[in-house]
Amino acid sequence: MCSKFSVTSDPDEVQNAFHYINPANFPRRDNIRPTEPVMIVREANANRRELALVRWGLIPHWVKDPDDFTLIINARAETLMEKPSFRTSVAHKRCLFPANAFYEWSGPKGNRTPHLITMKQQKEQNDASPPLMAFAGLWDHWLGADGSEFESAVIITVAANEEMSQIHQRMPAILKPEHYDAWLDVKNIRAKEVLPLLAPAESNSLSINNLESLKEKPAPKKATPQDDPSEQGSLF
User: Which of 42, 161, 188, 196 could connect to 95 by a Cys-Cys bridge, CB 3.0–4.6 Å?
Assistant: First the structure.
């Protein structure tokens, strides 16, 4: 599962890593939560990439009333092709979530230990931010009968690798840079061809640090974001 993450690199570094065509200034964000605006990278016209701001918590295009729908913040890679919420997006609306770190908790309820997870440094860096990484994601566009519209997105998760399995059974699907093009190319590469890219991170590639001082805040009252509700029935 992934319910909080951060983007702390400066805008130029993010653009250099993801090569999108629309430069943007944005602030450092250390604690991005569900329902908040998030940056995604997706394919634009002429096989070029664009940076877009969407809401974290997928609302599929077929939903009649978003207020009556439970936001989906994570989607299990193993069932993307089976769930109506994801089938269209995995074929036509794949994206990347730029990130420097994500958070996970372990231990019993009421006494959970927070952890900050980053990619290990491959070389000495002057930047104070951890290395950038990309979570595989999906997005969708919702259009209401009254003309209102918005875009939203979901982070794909996979089984935890060796390090992560010590604290949680799931983790974001972290794509390698050499796989960005294939994942984003929804015009020429079918979903079933890129699903093998959704795999646990290689062993010994992550740094996991305890953050005892990090405190969880109450979730927003209007919506209750959840992980991919695979166990709640066949709707998703």
Answer: 42
Q: Which residues have CB under 8 Å from 193's CB, separation 6+?
A: 182
What is the total residue count of the chain? 236
Per-residue pLDDT at 227 exceeds 60: no
**Which tokens hold the place of 111?**
């006494």
Burial of 181 (0-12, 13-18, 19+ CB in 10 A): middle
Rounded-to-integer distance, Cα 174 and Cα 156, Å: 9
Give me the catalytic one of 43, 104, 151, 163: 104
Confidence of residue 232 (pLDDT cuts 50, 70, 90): very low
Task: Report pLDDT for 59.
Answer: 97
Q: Is 2 a residue of the active site?
A: yes
Beta strands in 48-132 (DSSP E): 49-56, 74-76, 94-99, 101-106, 113-119
C-alpha 199 chain-centroid distance? 14
* pTM exceeds 0.70 for this model: yes
Q: Of 231, 201, 26, 21, nearest to 102 (Cα)?
A: 201
Residue boundaries of the structural domains of the chain:
5-220
When the candidates are 3.90.320.10, 3.40.50.150, 3.90.1680.10, 3.30.40.10, the CATH number that belongs to 5-220 is 3.90.1680.10
Any catalytic annotation for residue 104? yes
- Helix or strand (DSSP H, E) at 150: strand 149-159
Q: Which residue in the block uniquely carries the two structure tokens 């983007």?
A: 7
Q: What's the whole-number average pLDDT of the chain?
A: 88
